[in-house]
Amino acid sequence: MLELAILGLLQESPMHGYELRKELTAKLGAIRAAISYGSLYPTLRRLQAAGWITEAADPPATAEEVPALTSRRGRVVYEITAEGKERFAQLIAQTGPETYDDTGFGVHFAFFARTDQATRLRILEGRRRKIEERREGLRDVLGRAAERLDAYTLELQRHGLDACEREVRWLEELIANERSGRAPAVPTTGTAGGRREDNSPPPPGESRKERP
Amino acid sequence: MLELAILGLLQESPMHGYELRKELTAKLGAIRAAISYGSLYPTLRRLQAAGWITEAADPPATAEEVPALTSRRGRVVYEITAEGKERFAQLIAQTGPETYDDTGFGVHFAFFARTDQATRLRILEGRRRKIEERREGLRDVLGRAAERLDAYTLELQRHGLDACEREVRWLEELIANERSGRAPAVPTTGTAGGRREDNSPPPPGESRKERP
DNA sequence: GTGCGATGTATCGGTCCGATACATCGCGGC
DNA sequence: GCCGCGATGTATCGGACCGATACATCGCAC
């Protein structure tokens, strides 16, 4: 998952670790707290070893007279390679069971602007199916096993059930919107395309609520 | 977290691994998918080594003529020890940062019936604070960085923000309810008390919705 | 001039997951 | 009669990710 997210972000522009983490937090803030460095740096290393990303020296100053001693670690800027872009395209289009869990879905969704419409639809529907199953499980417990559970546990289930119902409705909307064709041909072509132009994808939600 | 959950469940009655997993799923279904055996069994081993739980032979049949060969593995029933109950009481009352993340809060909440009121209040308020922070983060992104993000990412944030607002409201209700004193003295006394009597704790939610 | 918070890179131990393996039991179909 | 198959049941292994920790630099307020 982290791999996919990093590749996706670096596709927008080269970055160093710290920056990457901030962007990751901004983009995925709705899904997960904040990515740990204990995951980030090892993953960067792995991606570099695989050839999906490369280091790029960043010093804007010519850096002629570096003191040599104390060796000035300096920040390491990473950029995605052509193979990395291929890898990203492959990862973003391929769906497995993990695509539909909370984190997996969140990451995929966050990069829907770079995903083709058929895949978007497939993911949305898979997620809906999964949430519906969770919902049924909660209904079962709330129905059949209610007397075995204490009031707090029950309340927790109710809250969870509510969240499920709400998410299913949200997904229905997105699916309908997606099916209605309102979806441009997305910049998956990105390999040589316009740099950082943000060719805006479809408007997913129709301002479902007043926000003053 | 798993440790706390296992100790909590075994406090209700002795169980073997498989059963434990099912009960765990029923009790925490609103929080997390299903606990993996790859976590469960090692944790059971750890708890046993620490002396919090013990194995209890379960065969109801006298098992006199066991074939000896092929050695009939048989299910392993675990039960909590006195030290285990102490450990549980300690874990359930102590709060750290991890108490307020999604999983930690869920597990603690699921055992609120065995938690004293002051602790319940503390946890509820800590969780609210945490969710409020997440909410502010999302509002910031939605406000300040909106044009840097594509429509799908934005929609994800909106959905996340909505969930935050909803959870804060839920927590407010629970906190108010808790403060209103409607909270019996909870069976944390359990060490020698009535066996599996489920002395019902307070009604947390006031049937916030019709459920036909 | 000095402390302190933001920026920045990095590692380590531990928790938990997902895949996999394997054995038993009861039941329905052939 | 027996065969497969799904539920029950215990167990391990590699890998992903987290939280704590360490350490260095920079700019700015006091």
Report what the structure shows.
2 copies of one chain form a homodimer. By secondary structure, chain A is mainly alpha-helical. The first copy, chain A, contains 7 helices and 3 strands, in the order H-E-H-H-E-E-H-H-H-H. Chain A has a 3-stranded antiparallel beta sheet. The longest helix of chain A is centred in the C-terminal third of the chain and has 29 residues, at 151-179. The two termini of chain A are 35 Å apart. Residues 60-71, 184-200 and 205-212 of chain A have low confidence and may be disordered. At the A-B interface, helix 2, helix 5, helix 6 and helix 7 of A face helix 2, helix 5, helix 6 and helix 7 of B.
Q: Please give the count of helices of chain A.
A: 7
CATH superfamily of the largest domain in chain A: Winged helix-like DNA-binding domain superfamily/Winged helix DNA-binding domain
Would you tell me the structural class of the helices and strands of chain A?
Answer: mainly alpha
Broad CATH class of the largest domain in chain A: Mainly Alpha
Classify the helix fraction of chain A into a percent range.
40-55%
**Rg value of chain A:** 21 Å
Q: What quaternary form is this?
A: homodimer
- Reading the helices and strands of chain A in chain order gives HEHHEEHHHH
Q: What profile does the largest beta sheet of chain A have? A: 3 strands, antiparallel
Strand order of the largest sheet of chain A: 1-3-2
Q: From the 3D structure, determine the CATH topology of the largest domain in chain A.
A: Arc Repressor Mutant, subunit A
Give the averaged pLDDT of chain A, no decimals.
83
Low-confidence stretches of chain A: 60-71, 184-200, 205-212
Cα distance spanning the termini of chain A: 35 Å
Instruction: Determine the most extensive contact between two protein chains.
Output: A-B, 46 and 46 residues
Q: What fraction of residues of chain A sit in β-strands?
A: under 5%
Number of DSSP strands of chain A? 3
CATH architecture of the largest domain in chain A: Orthogonal Bundle
